[in-house]
Write a structure and sequence with these properties.
homodimer, alpha/beta, Molybdenum Cofactor Biosythetic Enzyme, Chain A, Molybdopterin biosynthesis moea protein, domain 2, Molybdopterin biosynthesis moeA protein, domain 3, 4 domains, 6-stranded mixed β-sheet, 28 strands
Chain lengths: 401, 401
């Protein structure tokens, strides 16, 4: 039995970042950049008005105040994207809109709210300093600058940035292909009639959704009964994927044949027990470049081990390093206990109250009770040597997104 | 000029929850339930072994210890999903796997680790209490129970739960259809050549991605130059959507014709200035059931106002109430200032250091500098009457997901 930290180290050692592919900009959201992005030009490319108003020479406005405005002659105007034909010299101004090119000679913009115009004259009621209300060329991005490094997760802001750099397409890391097999003769497909002793397969559905959520491309291979031949066949088929997730059949029992089947399929085992609760019996192995995870059959164990081990593997394949969950300090509202000698992942619900957070543990922390995952929006990781935390204590809760 | 709080109130008053549609379970991730989900059966449906081991009568094991094990006769066995033919009476045990039906007569399971078997006998080295290592019927979910209420956001755990309830399809709220128009003669499509004074349209790309991220279905209508006729045509076309987002053209200038066009298109204006920085000039109006937002042209203002006003509207249309961002207490690493009389949204990067968070403000907080949104994973909302916060102070940072 190894620690989660050690297990993660072993998993990460086996991961290679996947190759890249080109996608259209609007399809790049939630993907990961496979290339460094440099800017081919300044943004903005020219000095421009940052406010609607009058382009002036700042020096001209020095004495301007509410009672003694400075009067300038309006010689031209320019709207966003355009440049006035006239230049600005002392005593003159150009009426200008946000986004227009700053006219030659001008070095500041007085905003409309501080002016009053009549015919071709404008009264300036407030002095401006040089550069005021002007966006200078290269203010956001400089030509040649590395704007986004390879490995960047593409959020809406990055999509906007790529658009402003004129990128119609971008190189992103391919999505890890993840095969999901549920093992167990007790499993029934949702929608089918349930015979005595059987239960509906829920793990492959939850795992499928978890894979989608962290940027992988899942395929549900389906339910395979506890039959060595049949399982071996399916496993061999699934070893063409980047990751194979098996749910169920990794505990101690006589009918637990997953390990044996994986051995026959040429999968090299690297560990099969991790000191966590829930989720101790968890297999990890590799065959060529395929990572194989044998997750426990219990729905909570399966989901938590996915979060702790598979998600980091998928992120590493994508070249992402940001799989740490945000942590929020909260007041524990009910005592929690760790009855194992393993790191214990307690499911809690965080509720905000007057700017502070309260953490309510799920009523049942059993690994078979999926309702605790439905309840939870956070996880408390109790170290193996902490036996209990009393109600009212401060705890760190990791946010489940 | 109204407060953000007031603006939100006005927006929410105009929102109606959208109708529902049926989707396949695997497509329900990140959607919102449009129906209450009740369970038609207990989960589990029978008492079952929660561990691999021996089903026994707890009473039989009372005296068991390492030095004086209790010896029981193995009369049968059962694997997951099955039931032993024999029942358990005093002195007898059934070898049983996790997920098997608890045999008649038995009331506890001794796990393998506490036993030793030879032929048809098993030595029990540890006593168990009644109910130990047994999952009782209805332990996770009771028949008739309301498991998930309408309005639930469907995460992987909910998908798993719905599978375990045998739901092949679920009723979810339709995705709000969102039309996006970028206005401004200065805008150029990414990939096209850039003429003097022009810039690439980035807002419609960022907004498109923001709509996707919060569960809407965006359509990029495209760039419309500052021409009343052309804009009116496009706006009328887009008023068939649930939401129309216009970017640019809501500030004071002569060429800002968006308000006029919206009036002509029959849009009833409800506000057009909000006391926030960035993003003061923001139009909101309605026509029939269509919400119309005129967002500022500056990329940061546009994105922040989307977060603050449009996202809540989309969430309300979906029947979700959980649009509040999680807040993390952090140490501010550089002084921040509010030079406006408006609520100020400062973009910061949260970095974890030894279990604590540090908040680094983006070097430029100008609304034209999209790089600040690329920099940020969090936002500090500075109230309008707070002039500055010094470096080293504790601040609350809202997480941008």
């Amino acid at each position: 039995m190894i620690s989660l930290e050690k297990a993660l180290e072993i998993v990460k050692r086996e991961v290679k970042v996947l190759p890249s592919e080109k996608v259209k900009l609007l399809s790049s959201l939630n993907r990961v950049l496979a290339e460094d992005i440099y800017s081919e030009f300044d943004i903005p490319q020219f000095n421009r008005a940052a406010m609607d108003g009058y382009a002036v020479i700042a020096q001209d406005t020095t004495s301007a105040c509410l009672t003694h405005p400075v009067v300038l002659k309006i010689v031209d105007e320019a709207s966003a994207g355009f440049k006035a034909k006239s230049s600005v010299s002392s005593g003159k101004a150009v009426r200008i809109m946000t986004g227009a090119i700053l006219p030659e000679g001008a070095d500041a913009v007085v905003m409309f709210e501080d002016t009053e115009s009549e015919k071709d004259e404008v009264k300036i009621f407030r002095s401006v300093k040089q550069g005021r209300n002007v966006s200078f060329s290269g203010e956001d991005v400089k030509k040649g600058e590395k704007v986004l490094p390879r490995g960047t997760f593409i959020r809406p802001a990055e999509v906007g940035m790529l658009a402003s750099l004129s990128k119609e397409e971008v190189c992103v890391v391919k999505k890890p292909k993840v095969a999901i097999i549920s093992t167990g003769s007790e499993l029934t497909e949702p929608g089918d009639a349930l015979k005595e002793g059987k239960i509906y397969d829920s793990n492959s559905f939850a795992l499928f959704s978890q894979v989608v959520s962290c940027g992988g491309q899942p395929e549900r291979i389906g339910i395979v009964p506890d039959d060595e031949k049949e399982l071996l066949l399916k496993v061999k088929e699934a070893l063409s994927f980047d990751i194979l997730l098996l749910s169920g059949g990794v505990s101690m029992g006589k009918y637990d044949l997953v390990k044996e089947v994986l051995r026959k399929a040429g999968v090299r085992m690297l560990f099969w027990k991790v000191a966590v609760k829930p989720g101790k019996p968890t297999f990890f192995g590799v065959r060529n470049h395929t990572l194989v995870f044998g997750l426990p059959g219990y729905p909570v164990s399966s989901m938590i081990n996915f979060e702790n081990l598979v998600k980091p593997a998928i992120f590493e394949m994508l070249g992402r390093k940001d799989y740490k969950r945000f942590k929020i300090r909260a007041t524990l509202k009910e005592e929690i206990k760790n009855t194992s000698n393993r790191e214990n992942f307690i499911r809690v619900k965080l509720i905000e109250q007057e700017g502070k957070y309260l953490a309510y543990p799920a009523p049942s922390q059993k690994s078979g009770v999926l309702k605790s995952m439905v309840w939870a929006n956070g996880i408390i990781a109790l170290p193996k040597d902490v036996r209990k935390v009393e109600s009212g204590k401060q705890v760190l809760v990791e946010i489940l997104s």
